[in-house]
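Backbone shape codes:
***
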Amino acid sequence: MYKDQPMTKTRLTLYDTTLRDGQQTQGVQFSTPEKHRIVEALDALGIDYIEGGWPGANPTDSAFFEEVGHTRATVTAFGMTKRAGRSAANDEVLAAVMNAGTKSVCLVGKTHDFHVTTALGITLDENVDNIRASVAHIVGQGREALFDAEHFFDGYKANPDYALKCLHAAYDAGARWIVLCDTNGGALPSEVGKITAVVIASGIPGSHVGIHTHNDTEMAVATTLAAVDAGARQIQGTLNGLGERCGNANLTSLIPTLLLKEPYASKFETGVTLEALEGMTRVSRMLDEILNRVPLKQSAYVGSSAFAHKAGLHASAILKNPTTYEHIDPAQVGNRRVIPMSNQAGQSNLRRRLAEAGIDVPDTDPALPRILDRIKAREAEGYSYDTAQASFELLAREELGMLPEFFEVKRYRVTVERRKNKYNKMISHSEAVVVVKVDGEKKLSVSESMDELGNDRGPVNALSKALAKDLGPYQDMIDDMRLVDFKVRITQGGTEAVTRVIIDSEDGQGRRWSTVGVSANIIDASFEALLDAVRWKLVRDAQPA
């Protein structure tokens, strides 16, 4: 090979099972439209195989396969090997999988002798015959066959000859991929690597070997990489690590590692380009949005805290060179750097955050240590400014003498009533009264908690609507803002408990900001956070009259 000739990379095949194994997560159930939305995202990302589910197992999975449109990725149906005592052609469970009409079919079969005799209650030879006949049936119908070797690593450790015999039965029958499954998630990276190498040495080429791991020891990504190091060339996993019990190998972590980390970046290529990788964070958060759950902040690569630098020492170094405390550029995965404010913050953090807010303060300004002292004192009271950047900005502006007083709250009142309606059904109803002073004029606003459908939205909603109902000359500036998230935490126990409320707001420009309020009273804490939300919006969009 000539010196300047680029090294040929080995292709790794990515197989996503979010819609099947991921749906086995406790509390997760995708609708058919949600499945199609996920498929579109995976296809755009560059995934090679998308396992759509188990046709015939439930109506949602069956409906999905009836509506599968054109995809670059190979949509795959999942099922199990035929049952003993009947032919593959006459097994109705296998027939339902075949009737999905997919080009590719993945069948799970037992490779652990204990499961064959205990769970299936058949002989070891019967199980081998079931594997061989099922795969041969799929191949005979012109479909690509994958064999998921269930409990393979446990099976190999218990009876290596039998576990390998099962694999070769599938491979000799024409299976394109033999997928080694750490079904219980208890195998360690070293043993996965060694056993995968044994499989390849037994006569099944690495180009036909896949790896499917679970995360019960928090090592699913590591065990997957160990199999790749040993020669496996298909990787199975799920978005955000969804899956049974502790989840599957997390493709959201694996894919960036394969593309950005050595030796994988130089040795391998996948269907995911560096350009597509920039959408990884968006895809991850789209899934959490579908599941109606808060994204895990500490998720590698895509979490909101993945590139958050809280310590002042870290922030100072980051300003000089980001590689001091970042293993990759966050933009490579569509994420961003965060320099939060907290009681550990130094002046480097502070000035950086002020600059991001458009506030240029010289490092000699005497207000800087006052701001830091105030942040530390308030966080000791229960405030959290690393998750409420808008409230931090307002606090800093106040100390710097840069916070206009657009309005003054004179008083507020909230009432909550629980009563029976005319249908003799118990309902709740909240009403809020807010009095503000704008340009010397008092304005009283009243709002209730009922939405347009007649549903009670609670006292905080009523308070929010009342506050934003009439701010005189500033009203137009806040008409497009809305409350999008509301989080409550009790920061102390016992009779002196303190409530912290974090509110996320959004406006018509697509801006999103967070504010914090703290009080022993949840309504009062909420109102403080609401006030900050409105004030931040006015600071950004208005000037006092």
Notes: The two ends are 74 Å apart (CA to CA). The chain has a mean pLDDT of 90.
